[in-house]
Write a structure and sequence with these properties.
Length: about 450
């Protein structure tokens, strides 16, 4: 937990931005897997964590802007709970750690909200993503369930996004802690992968490193020899000599700040000549994009820089043709790069995506494209000091996508389909790092994890 002054200052800043009304910030509850007492791993709502800091289920925060007061609603544990969970501090004592002096039992929450509404005061809440929280707001505010997010506050949402987008030094330090775990994860993975074993055998060992650091994954593992499937959560493949293994993973710090790293490594320890060619194009695309990252630059332009690098170099290999600038403008590169360069990162690995991805990644100046590939760019707007974002270009050979485009003769003035066919079983390569935008440029966060061909092969040989 940060200092109580941190949470006080965050709430005070939010009050200034929103100006009036009652802000309702529900925390998350335990969610059952297959019966009530067998719940999923608890993860607190990130906005509740940001403003109230308490990492446990059953809490709701109220920020009364008009009366300059905050209240945390929650219940102390009863003896029946103590038997199973042990003694826990009183809510009033926990609230003091985040500089909240007023606490009330959950049973008073509904009447408090109804009293606010009767007084004609505006109830403000963020868009919700959990069914149980939507039902909770329905009960509290008397809004019909399907319309809950229709009545969420745009002003509050934009204020929270603006505030959470700028990471303080102490937040960056937490991200670095998560990246320290990522370093251990990738060092282990590269030393363990070898032909003749299953993906899940390595996944289990790498996940064990996360747990041994008293941490959790920031999102489900992507660990597969089928890297052409962008979010491949299956770990059932037998790794064979010559496969490319794509690992996209992250950990959380103790305060739930995320890391998000991707590396692609050769099963057997050595890249083939063809794999080196594609790998080095992806690496150059990433480095070219990162080099552009500084305040005032549109991240959309960083994405397009990576796309152009890919188009230029695939042309040299004979897979693309024509003018690279024209090819990128037409979207021909998206056959190989059908996703965006990256996304914001912080308390969520896709930071604040639950609040409205377009509000997080775009603004009045930069609107989201409708073009295939470019429309998947989550962050297009101008970069500012304090942003933390990912840079993760890739090249993928997706047989189904190749077949569709080829049958449609799509953009064939830029794509040499005969050459592309020679790569249809290649798989995919992605390289990802986490970038802090500084006052004068950028910083790649975390200890360097092998990403040149030579360094990856060296780590695999250990």
């Amino acid at each position: 937990m940060f200092s109580k002054e941190t949470y006080r200052n965050r709430r005070d800043e939010l009050k200034k931005r929103v100006e009036s009304g009652i802000i309702l910030l529900p925390g998350n509850n335990d969610s059952s897997m297959n019966y009530k007492d067998n719940s999923y791993h608890f993860r607190q709502d990130s906005s509740f964590l940001y403003y109230f800091g308490l990492d446990e289920p059953g809490l709701t925060g109220i920020i009364d802007i008009d009366n300059n007061e905050e209240i945390i609603f929650g219940d102390d544990v009863a003896i029946e709970d103590i038997i199973w969970m042990g003694p826990l501090p009183k809510l009033v004592d926990k609230a003091k750690k985040v500089d909240v002096t007023v606490t009330k039992p959950v049973s008073e929450l509904k009447n408090s909200i109804r009293d606010f509404i009767k007084e004609g005061r505006q109830l403000l809440y963020l868009p919700q993503y959990r069914a149980e929280t939507i039902i909770k707001i329905e009960e509290l505010a008397g809004i019909n369930n399907p319309n809950i997010n229709d009545f969420s506050s745009d002003k509050l949402t934009k204020a929270v996004i603006a505030q959470r987008s700028i990471k303080t030094d102490e937040e960056v330090e937490e991200i670095e802690k998560a990246l320290d775990i990522s370093y251990q994860m990738y060092a282990a993975a590269m030393s363990l992968i070898e032909p003749g074993i299953y993906e899940h055998q390595i996944c289990g060992k790498v996940h064990g490193i996360v747990l041994a650091n008293n941490s959790h994954l920031s999102f489900p593992f992507i660990f597969s020899v089928h890297g052409e499937t962008l979010h491949n959560h299956s770990h059932n493949n037998l790794m064979e000599e010559g496969n490319l293994l794509l690992m996209d993973s992250g950990a959380e710090s103790s305060l739930h700040y995320a890391s998000d790293i991707t590396r692609t490594m050769p099963v057997g320890g050595k890249f083939t000549g063809k794999q080196k060619d594609i790998y080095n194009i992806v690496l150059k695309a990433q480095l070219d994009a990162i080099e552009m990252m500084q305040p005032g630059v549109l991240n959309k332009n960083c994405h397009l820089r990576a796309a152009k690098t890919i188009a230029e170099n695939l042309k040299q290999l004979g897979l693309m043709k024509g003018n690279p600038d024209d090819a990128v403008e037409a979207g021909a590169h998206a056959l190989f790069l059908p996703h965006g360069l990256g996304h914001m990162m912080g308390l969520d690995v896709h930071d604040m995506e639950n609040l409205n991805e377009n509000l997080v990644g775009y603004d009045e100046t930069v609107q989201r494209s409708k073009q295939f590939g470019l429309n998947a760019l989550r962050l297009g707007k101008e970069l500012k000091p304090g942003f933390v974002l990912t840079a993760e270009p890739g090249i993928y050979f997706i047989p189904e996508l190749i077949d569709r485009w080829k049958a449609e003769k799509k953009l064939e003035e830029f794509i040499n389909y005969d050459e592309v066919e020679k790569f249809r079983t290649f798989g995919g390569i992605r390289i990802e790092d986490d970038i802090l935008i500084t006052g004068s440029g950028h910083k790649v966060l975390g200890k360097p994890i092998a990403k040149t061909v030579e360094d990856v092969e060296a780590w695999c040989a250990k």
